[in-house]
Amino acid sequence: MDFYLTQSVFSDPGDLDVGDLPREPGQLARVVRDVIIHRGEGELFGHAIPERWLAEDAESRYVTEVLRILRERSGRPLTERREPPERFVGTCRDFSLLLCSLLRATGTPARLRCGFAAYFTDGFHEDHWVTEYRLPDGSWRLVDAQIAYGPYDVSFDPLDVPRDQFVVAGQAWRECRAGRADPATFGVSWLEDIRGLWYVRANVGHDLAALNGVEVLPWDGWGPEILDDAALTDDDIALTDTVARARTEDELRRLYQDPRLTVPDEIRSYTADGGLRNVTLRRSRTTSPGGSTAATPVR
């Protein structure tokens, strides 16, 4: 069984009937784009997103919660396009996680990637998540379900995002460490204090976790609290160097066993509204496309 065919506790769609879903990745990306509205897209769609939805949906870590909210807002099937008031209010991570879930459920190995997009703000690499799926020849392709079929003007196919347009976190770290990129251009462009090498390091940790089936929220944190470049120690930098150099799936599995990198059962969540609270993650229940399940601790 391919590891990336197995649903994680985050991507598991529960009792969703996938019989009517398309199998082609581009068509699945269209399904996802038509049921989610990004929390920043209200004006683009002419829709005033209710504040209570911004708060409720932002903390929905699991696909089962996304699907529950979608069912509550409309009786439409998942394959039918929804008007903005009927959609889940999400972030790039939610578009990516739902697509990853549907790909896995319909037989395509898939995973989330955390990194930085060069296509939203000129001269800046915005914090971003996309989906990556495995082609029959064993190579991987990036898909951005948020911008596919959406109100965005990009110069490339969002169903095959170039690697220089979406820079995975490990590559971003290597570029910054080698002096080929400015860490101050990586992060959140409209927040002066949410950028820098420390932020690239955080995304390296999120990406490693996602590659090991732990697809946490963008504002979840664990381990030492590092919120600026001055807080980075030599040990932090050396450990991140090691992660960023990893090339094989075996290396990714081995590295994730390091307790400094493993996501614990209890994490910190900085939350979308700027608050801070402790969150206990669900215990993992993984499901293969064939329907068999295996209960394991959070990986």
TrEMBL record:
Gene3D superfamilies for this protein: 3.10.620.30
Q: Report the superkingdom from the record.
A: Bacteria
Q: Where is the Transglutaminase-like domain?
A: 89-145
One Pfam family this sequence matches:
Transglut_core
Protein name (record): Transglutaminase-like domain-containing protein
Organism name: Streptomyces lutosisoli
Highest classification ranks of the organism: Bacteria, Bacillati, Actinomycetota, Actinomycetes, Kitasatosporales
